[in-house]
User: Fold this.
Amino acid sequence: MNKKLKIAILTSGGDAPGMNAAIRAIVLACNRYNYDCIGVYHGYNGLINADIAKLKIEAVNNIIQQGGTLLKSARCPELRTKTGVQQAINTLIKEQIDALIVIGGDGSFTGLLAIAEQWRGQVIGLPGTIDNDLDGTDYTIGFATAINTAIEAIDKIRDTANAFDRVFIVELMGRNSGHIAFNVGVACAAEQIISFENFHPSQAEDKLAELAEEIYAEQKSKDNSYLVVLAENLWPGGAMHLAEQLKEQFNIDCAACVLGHIQRGGSPVAKDRILATKLGVGAVQAIKVGKSLLMLGERDNEIVEVALSETIKHSKTVNENLVAAQQNILALTARSN
Amino acid sequence: MNKKLKIAILTSGGDAPGMNAAIRAIVLACNRYNYDCIGVYHGYNGLINADIAKLKIEAVNNIIQQGGTLLKSARCPELRTKTGVQQAINTLIKEQIDALIVIGGDGSFTGLLAIAEQWRGQVIGLPGTIDNDLDGTDYTIGFATAINTAIEAIDKIRDTANAFDRVFIVELMGRNSGHIAFNVGVACAAEQIISFENFHPSQAEDKLAELAEEIYAEQKSKDNSYLVVLAENLWPGGAMHLAEQLKEQFNIDCAACVLGHIQRGGSPVAKDRILATKLGVGAVQAIKVGKSLLMLGERDNEIVEVALSETIKHSKTVNENLVAAQQNILALTARSN
Amino acid sequence: MNKKLKIAILTSGGDAPGMNAAIRAIVLACNRYNYDCIGVYHGYNGLINADIAKLKIEAVNNIIQQGGTLLKSARCPELRTKTGVQQAINTLIKEQIDALIVIGGDGSFTGLLAIAEQWRGQVIGLPGTIDNDLDGTDYTIGFATAINTAIEAIDKIRDTANAFDRVFIVELMGRNSGHIAFNVGVACAAEQIISFENFHPSQAEDKLAELAEEIYAEQKSKDNSYLVVLAENLWPGGAMHLAEQLKEQFNIDCAACVLGHIQRGGSPVAKDRILATKLGVGAVQAIKVGKSLLMLGERDNEIVEVALSETIKHSKTVNENLVAAQQNILALTARSN
Amino acid sequence: MNKKLKIAILTSGGDAPGMNAAIRAIVLACNRYNYDCIGVYHGYNGLINADIAKLKIEAVNNIIQQGGTLLKSARCPELRTKTGVQQAINTLIKEQIDALIVIGGDGSFTGLLAIAEQWRGQVIGLPGTIDNDLDGTDYTIGFATAINTAIEAIDKIRDTANAFDRVFIVELMGRNSGHIAFNVGVACAAEQIISFENFHPSQAEDKLAELAEEIYAEQKSKDNSYLVVLAENLWPGGAMHLAEQLKEQFNIDCAACVLGHIQRGGSPVAKDRILATKLGVGAVQAIKVGKSLLMLGERDNEIVEVALSETIKHSKTVNENLVAAQQNILALTARSN
Assistant:
């Protein structure tokens, strides 16, 4: 246990607010145990190209509040090839790295497992993605910030929607999961949430008619805006197309907004800073006691260890009670007005 | 001067943050002079449909900080017809309105002039539009908030752009003027601003090649993101198309974001609250001394009166020195790296 | 179960962001089940003075994003008297209220239990306080917003602290618990957290010397600011006095900031809106099935029911692992620089 | 004109948001003209101690959005001595500096003039202070951000004030001028503004009685909060004392908040970024054509040059029309309720 370890870190896949907070915690924990901490730049590309540098404590000063990632991120198709994996391992060996911590999502963990198959070092994953779709952790680093960014944006949209009693379709990120869309929809009092939890693209025709009918009813009965929150990669053609369909088929004037990449950036909220700090410290402590092939996550407010191989098997689903409350109470109430 | 006046207010056209602050100031000033203040709802439609109500002081409590407009806004095609104008005037006469204050943009002022041609009451316009394109005032109510909303959004986009050293095209509002795009571009240190001040659609082909060349040069020489701020209604096909062109013709990976309606909403910044308050008070004072057919604006930090008919003749241009500084110093510097 | 119930709501004690979201959820859920929903104004005073009104659905439109409480809050010393309790009960009986939901903290729940002793109606408490000090729930409504407000403020203070490499003492709310101070301290990378978890006032003298020594060491070794986060009601004399002590006894120039009431207000973050919505819906559902004398809370991400009498017995403590990580890893690291 | 110049920059006095934007603009403009740009650290101390370094373009990447100052700031009592001035000049001579740009307030400019008396180089001042009290410019760098930070904070305080219908005294920065207090007071719809424009400490006794009377009247007539905005360094004993006086002498329950240093930090708003950029470019251009002993400012939306010696003679006053509107219309209205 007293060996002086050399720990490398990289961030991979879509960046998420709080990645810097995790890097800081890892660097501080390494410093505490007198370990060397090596930063790998541009995701796995930095391993393949030996784009690395020692991370001193000064480098992580005042980054807990910064979005993005100081180590940069990137997609890395080369890591899906044998050659790429071998090159990455060569760097790890040449640099005498004892352990590798990867902050990213399921794609990043698949890459990490490929490396682990042929490398004797310890590997630890930390869940870093705004999509919150990783199984084995209640929250991923970046999710809390992303939904807050989205609700602040939608609160602004609501102002102008109210001024015109207008229908707005707002499309949110989330890749193939509805965590962002569903939570933001509830938090913004959306009149409709169209997300993976309550909609399948095969139902688009019926849903369109139902939506139009409801909008008519709402707008006849009262002055008000009508907000539809839509998960990305779900409605055929996306928000823009849905808005056009409502206009063309039902003569409903509506505006579409695709919130886009603002959801990835910004200073992390408290939740992401604290989660990232706990997980970063935990990762170094896990390495210290010889652990490997784990993702550290948070479940029921406690840090948990999950086999990396488990995290990439399924996507996590949105809390059922929240979905039920929305569908049975909040949405029905809206309809009954 | 001592007659008890009855003053009506409406907000028209695209809503802008600070409209509520102007309404509040008008209501308070009316109260000060013991005038009646009548709110007209849904823009000119409220005049046509007699959708009006007395505005008490309690109604404007705690609205200085709210986006949108409590009087609602709307487009009103009927006002472009003789019948529509006559109906609006009928309401004004029937309700014994002495003066009408309209908060809006040039379209709203055109409507106001149409009413004024046949109505004996006083009419005053206040510049309320995020686009800042009204001649006769340095700033319109809502502009300062809109550019701050945009820079906060782009700061977030910059985080993720930096993480990937990626090219982003961000399209901003502004209708047919570049006030928003140009000011936001400077404030966000955009590597490129494509706005009405420095680009005409006929130059698209050349600009595309120049842009690609510059992006290549930038990305070869250093790790960094490259941000293009684009005015709406300018590039053929918009930001999405520009991003596709860069990908298809020059193999440059880039992302496009259309910021959209978030730029219209949100709590007004100090500048808009103060400007709206000064103009609202000024409007009632102008009516008090018998003035009419004026827009009140701010020039050189003083409240000014401009003939309404003048304000709709030209659009205002962006400050030349700022354009020159950007083109000669800031942009050239970027290119020389 | 099919009886048409009449449910009253009040907010009591210090207001917390998200109280409006809870009110909205209760009103919507009542609407769903066709129950009457009665708003009681100014906390328990509204019961004593019969200051109540039916809450229609329109009243809760667009309040999910508003801080404060539309029902107003207040302290109510009269409720600690027999007469006061009796007057409150008289109103409940006269108005034929079937159930009373109180959103507040432990003081509010004590009052609710006093009423319940002599009133046959159902009583449900929802945890609404920024302090997060209620046992039986992981989070109270308002806590997440309060810590985010605090970190945004401290991030600004850090800017100016960094510019001057200066020592700042920032005092945070929390009443007699360290949830706010400790979480904010971790999230802001405070060099020191002085909170109930790691400090007792009897240690003030020693702590002062230790703090001074550490500040000397830090400032000798590097350019940097030094941030002390301090829980309120802990250091003898508070932040101002601590700053004076450091100046007078150790000649350390430092500034003190007492963040104060900004921590109570503001638009609730997503977490508080969603938590409040779930708990509000849950409260009406609990009443529907005949439950009473419960607080609804969230534990391990699920809604739980806790006996009201239990919630007021102990204060909840801050997560031990977080405290340990801070003390053993993060703080020691700082010291070793 | 074609000589390759060497330009030094320093930031001095209280830091202000936008200082980094000014530094960036200076560095970019130097790059454009192929000048060397030298950063001086910790204000004038950096000149005295030769704590300087060349500023490369990479150093100012992504700082336009950062509060604080990357060059650090500091008070520098040594510069008030002959020896200090001589040491500063020695560094300038030894390093072959041609021109010195100082971003700061009137104290900083006094120091700059002391240097200029005995040094042959060019000196330019840029107005950088949140207080906006420099004569010769309509706005100083940092003022717009400071008032926006203050209104966001007060909007939160208003939430909790409204919940309790409570009186709040909020003390704002501004040194010996009321620019911040008065503008923020108007923008937050403060029921009372106590600032240099409308109050002298000798009137404290009368004002206290008047204030108490008005609060009684307000609170009798309606449910509402009552917000007093107070300039710092004005009321004897400050906000805390005023609150105590209201409690003790008039039995009015009120809370006091001293906003403090949050007003200095934070990401600059658009206005400050753009102003700083224009002034930074302008400073280098002025040096290029041989100018010296000037402050660059903005008047009537144009960049202007003012003799440095003039800027320190008087403080600038708050716009009279705004003061008149507040006193005659807005405040009287409040009183008439």
